[in-house]
Amino acid sequence: MSINRSIRGALMPATFAVFAAMSASAAADTLTIGLSAEPTSADPHYHNLGPNNALAKHIFSALIEQDAQQLLAPGLAETWEPLDDTTWEIGLREGVSFSNGDPFTARDVVYTVCRIPTVPDAPSPFTLYTNAIAGMEIVDDHTIRITTDGPAPLLPNHLSTFTIISASASGAEDEVAFDAEGCSGLGDTPESQAFTDPDFAIGTGPYVLSSFVRGDRIVLERNPDYWGEEGAWEEIVLRPITNPGARVAALLAGDVDMIENPPTQDIERIESSGFKVSSGLSNRVIYIALDQGEAPTPGISGDANPLQDAKVREALAKAINREAIRDRIMLGYSEPAGELLPPPMFGTNADREAIPFDEAAARELLAEAGYEDGFQITLGTPNDRYINDGQIAQAVAQMWSRIGVQTDVDAKTFSAFISDRNGFAFSAFLAGWGAGTGEMSSPLGALVATRNPDAGLGGTNFARHSNSQMDDLLIEALQTVDEEAREALLQEASRVVMDSYGIIPIHYELTTWAMRDDLDYEARADQYTLAYEVVPAN
Amino acid sequence: MLVYFLRRLGQSLIAIIVMAILVFIGVYAIGNPVDILINPEATQREIDATMQRLGLDRPLWEQFFIYFGNLLQGDFGRSFVYGQPAMEIILQRLPATLELAFVALVIAIVFGIPLGVIAGLKPDTVLGKSIMGGSILGFSLPNFWQGLMLILIFAVLLGWLPAGGRGPTTEVLGIRVSFLTWEGLRHLILPAVNLALFKMALVIRLARAGTREVLLLDYVKFARAKGLSERRVITVHVLKNIMIPVVTVLGLELGSMIAFAVVTETVFSWPGMGKLLIDSINLLDRPVIVGYVMLTVFIFVFINLTVDLVYSGLDPRVRAGMRNE
Predict the structure, then answer these.
(1) Which end of chain B is less packed: N or C, by CB atoms within 10 Å?
(2) Are residue A137 and residue A72 in the same domain, yes or no?
């Protein structure tokens, strides 16, 4: 890059040099970040999706925060204690005020929980996290008792997923209540669009909204009255640059100070140009699901479904060389997986290593199962959703073919892939799962629990895996409020699934950020980019 | 004349309706937007409720008739992603695209015509041949590759211009424009050049062919014989006469620059309609996709209709054709 610098120095006319100096001095107080996806709204309760949730955390605060490892930490709530199986007492932080000066009280919390189901046209509502709440009793301005339908050990995790808005600024009445008859005193609840107006987006977060120009930029200014540690930047500019090449170019050209998700193949170039890359384990596992439903199954020759046999699944799991995928395709930015969530997150088994690569054992297992000549299979995969997803599937297909399982890859854009997958069109597919709650019941409940829409289990179990032992453990865990007992149950449930190769984990993605070398950012497991946690490097 | 007008109007309406059906079915076939939009952790209950709220639980034909009925009343539906009227979202992005297209058009004309005339006047010189060679590159290099190269050279290596985005905007008559500030202009240069390169190559070829043809005509010979300066011959007699095909083609090309700046806007993160279209396709935001395509169809049908009517006014042969029918 020194050559580039000298070219730049030789060719840059004086005016540009002067301008560059001006913008460099302005940059001291402004942090500009290139986002890989644009938040669809400034309303924190409109769309439950990573980019929106990350933006919301700048302007608003949640009762309970998740740290970089998604462990729960005090936010607007300082304490949360179960009084019995269905009642929780939440102690709120005192002396917190909204950015318009109003004090933060229990009324705002009740209002927020009541407002969530009323958001019009929400494409992905937060009701998922509030459904279990049956009532909220305001004990005093800073104490709330929450009652739930049945035991809800995940309530603190769920309270960490949404942020609190101001009841007064949203037009609530003086008395807001949530009792057996439901919510009352809400007044006219606001439309999502209203939050694009900085005067309406009133929160208790470290920054306040300054402007929201869709497709172009979101500008935030420091909130001088923030209750926590003050952010390092006077102003934050978030620019959606969805094209990865354009995002890298913007960083290299100095347009932005930091970018999300640089493509793995560009990381070497970014680092050699004098920038820094921060990476860390995410909560996202890349896995292969194998259809264990009725025979015949699509994409496999013959009338039988060999995937119902645990030995065949074990053979396919052991035929995958996870280290090679990490080194050659992910260029080091992944970690081979042995479970659905990386340790040390809640409910994982720290002693559980990645499934070892053993081609000879895989062949033997196939022979034992009666498939010494192998069979044919089609592996479905998206090619634009997860990091290098299409290439991973190609590599797996070759590895499977080497043990005699002739594999074709059916790679599609995510929207087309997901339609096919949800229609059970694949006997084997590659996909990813990020645990929003940051604990084991999320992947177990969604991916491998027996499909049961009424109980909200197995929603993404398109492999139709079913193991009653695991189901019992999981359901018991979801009823157990005691943390230690629940963790033990989840660990056991995970072991049961992994021992029967009910699902084949490949690796955990490492999330990466690239930035100027005088900045620091601690990688977050939830993959959120929180600009207020970016600090100048020492 | 009136009959001709009504018939053309009727044809245009049929074109619009057919497009509405094709686009709606095409987008419907890609997949279920809720699968993309909803958080994967959502339960079946939430998924069903969301499908119902967005009207996606109804059969295709019913969705289409609801959509089409609203369309007749000028309602393009609400965006699934943003929850706002789709047309409002599209029109918010229109000024950025128009600005880009017009600046690109100016670049194409200001550079393309002189270069084309020079190439036409001196076809066998090194200069003339290099201009033509350059225009072949402008034609044949893919648009996105040109864009990436512009970014690599002028933003990354030289550091002269920003790599993307729109920069600060100023409000003029209620429309936000960026060409009035130096910083805004700096952001505008690269994407406008990227969008202009192909059109510039087109203008160069048209101007060159026109110049070579006109130079051989009697009135140019006569002007020269009269002793007029070469400068006057070229600027008055040649230039005026080659402008007719150039203007006709550029008028039509402007429409396509507005409608299909998709690649340039994506490469340069330019917040215009094209980038909105790509983002909406990725999120299966059906009302915005269909709204955008309908707007494009409408623009093209309108331009074609106007052109046909103007021709019939200008060209006696077209009018004669109408009477004979």
Answers:
(1) C
(2) yes
Instruction: Give A256→chain B minimum CA distance, Å.
Output: 10
Are A214 and B82 an interchain contact pair (Cβ–Cβ within 8 Å)? yes
Taking an 8 Å cut-off on Cβ atoms, the answer to whether A250 and B37 are in contact is no
Q: Is the pLDDT of residue B13 over 90?
A: no
For chain B, the structural domain boundaries read 92-283
Lowest mean pLDDT of A17-31, A375-389, B276-290, name the range: A17-31
Whichever domain contains A178, its CATH number is 3.90.76.10
What does the DSSP 8-state code read for residue A355?
P
Same domain, A328 and A350: yes
> Which member of B37, B160, B164 has the closest CB to residue A123?
B37
The answer to whether A192 contacts B45, with C-beta atoms less than 8 Å apart, is: no
- In terms of residue numbers, what domain contains A143? 50-195
Assembly ipTM: 0.80
Nearest CA in chain B to A51: B39
Inter-CA distances, A435 with A432, A444, A525, B10, B316, Å: 10, 10, 9, 55, 72
Residue B193 phi/psi, 5-degree rounding, is: -65, -40
Looking at the complex, report in whole angstroms how far the Cα of residue A413 sits from the nearest Cα belonging to chain B.
Answer: 9
- B158:A20 CB<8 A: no
Class of domain B92-283: mainly alpha
- B275–chain A Cβ distance below 8 A for any pair: yes
Mean pLDDT is highest, among A11-20, A311-320, A411-420, B232-241, for A311-320
A444's tokens = 């177990």
C-beta atoms surrounding A285 within 10 Å? 24
* pTM for the whole structure: 0.84
Average pLDDT, rounded, for chain A: 89
Query: Does the structure show a pLDDT above 80 at B30?
Result: no
